[in-house]
Each structure stands twice: as C-alpha cells, then as structure tokens.
Write the structure tokens for this entry.
Amino acid sequence: MGSNTIIRRRYRSNLIIGVIFSVAIIAALVSEIYQAPITTGANLDTHLTVLGDIKYDEVVQITIQNKLGTLELSRNSSNDNLWELTSPKQLPANQGPINGLIDALRVVTTRKFYQPDSINMTNFSLENPLASMTFTKNDGTKQIVKQGIINPINRSTYITVLGLNKIIHIDAIEFNPSSLDVSGLINSAIFAIKPSSVTAMKLSRLSRNSHGNIQFEIAKNGERWIDSKNVELNGDDINEYINSLTAIHGPIILDNLDEKQAEEVSKQLESVAYKFDLTLNENNNISYTVSNPIKDFPGLKLVSYKDVMVKASNRPQVYIIDKDKLKSLTQTTQGQFKALQIKKLFY
C-alpha cells in the first residue's frame, strides 16, 4: 500500500516535470517562429557606415523625434563648431550629445541583418520607432535613421537606414536618441568655446562717459602668449584661466521674452559694466557684455543687485548669473598674468 503510494507520487512528479519541460520547448519554438527575426545573409559586415559618406562638418541640421517630442538643431551661423537648439525653443545646445551621436552613427558595429518584413518591423518596434533622426547636409540631402527597441542586457539596439532594405542589429548607441529631451541638450555654459581655439582676450571696464579702461589685453603669438608690451606670459596660467571661464554656467537663460521683459533686457544692456572680447582661430571674434547688477526682472524672483546679465554677440540669448560667479572674469587684471620666468645660464 505504502509502496504504491510512493510510485504514484513519483509518477505524478515526473508527469508534472514532463509537462513543464514540454511547455518550455513549445514556448521556445513559438518564440523562435513568431518572434525571432530572420537573418538576410550569412556574410555579415562587422562595421557599417550608417551616415554614408556624410562628413561631420557637412551636417548642418538634425531633427530628432522620440516619445518626448521633436527636437530641431542647427549649426550656429557665426561659429560652425557650435550647435543650437532651434525648436521647441531657441537655446544654445550642449555639443557633447550631438557630436557623440554623429560620431556613433558614422560607423556602427553590426551584429546581424534582418528582413524588414512586417513581423520583424513590429517585433523590433520599428514601425513605431523609439526615435527617428534626420541628418541634413549642407547640400540639402538627408539621411534618416530610425531606432527600435533597446536590449539593456546585451547593450544592443535595432535600426533602419534610408536606402538600406534591412533591419540592422547593432551595439547600443552611446548617446541614446530615444531619451534626449530639451533639458539634456541645453548648454548653460556662458563661454561656450573650445579653449585651444582662443588666440586673444581683452577685458574692458566700461563707464557711461568713456570707452572704458582696459583691465587686461593679451594675445597669442605662435605658441607664446604675450601682453600689449610684447612681454611673454606664462601660458599654463592663461590656459588654466580660459578653462575656468568655460566652467561658468548661467542658471537662468532668457528666451521667448514678452514685451515688458524685452524692454528690461534692452534697458540693462544699454549701459554695461564690462566688455570681454575673445578672438578665436580664423579671426572669429566674440564679444561678451556684462550688465551692472540688476534690481529685479519681470517674472523672476531675484535678490536685488546680486545678479547681472551676460550677452554674447554670437547668440540671441541673455544669461542671468550671480555676479560673484563672474569674479574670475571681472576681477582679473593684467598683473595676474605673470611674466614667464626666464632662467639665465652662466658659463
């Protein structure tokens, strides 16, 4: 009696295990048949040029559509090295994600190719893509790349490219276009420059009745930095100074101003406190004007006379920043750039 009960229990256990195993096999087969895509070729290129023969400096406009909205970016009209967000707002753009996206898509590492049939397009979310990117060249031609699902386990994603009749399984894109939004693209750096491109600087303290007093004026002569008297300066100190400027960010960027706000900006910038002139490579000049401390501003809660406005000549936006955060600029004088110490050798 006891032995028969044990046998029946073992039989039931084996039967349950067998059913579970069979269900798993069937599920795997169904997944393989209905979900797994079909590769289109045995010979697979490990690298693919997604943007074709488009060179980095030929891309002048980028449109990114994702679940968060539509972003439009264009190169700055006066500085090709800078990108600007033109829609949904006109703001300076963070160069890192944009340059990274272009670099990531120029040559991608491919894993597999798949037929772009309706099943595969649906399985990989390419009929309703997570992101669609349009790259426009300076001659008006466009390249469109669509991104489907992302596999976070093996760090891969699926894309289609205009002109290529296939789905491409690639390594995940480092700067994920499906998660880009306005906040991730805004560049709040006031001095949005490449430090190595600076060839001359001049800071003037202005007053209402004069052209101002020059606090410092220095220029690059070959690999040397010199002052207005042709005295060689310490290049390391100057490079450190330029890097410190690029780290200054404005927490408030004024855009889409109403009439009252626009009038206040014009009023504050009519008589500025400082003018900072930068010369970059190829004689590209940028002037920054710094207002006197402002008492208030329509629509904003500010501490009276604690903030100033900063306006760059190559950008339409105006920044509001705590005046103390600009001390590295406004309180710098010629004497702070020490002359290069020349050691004399005696024989």
Remarks:
- The chain has two domains: 47-185, 195-336.
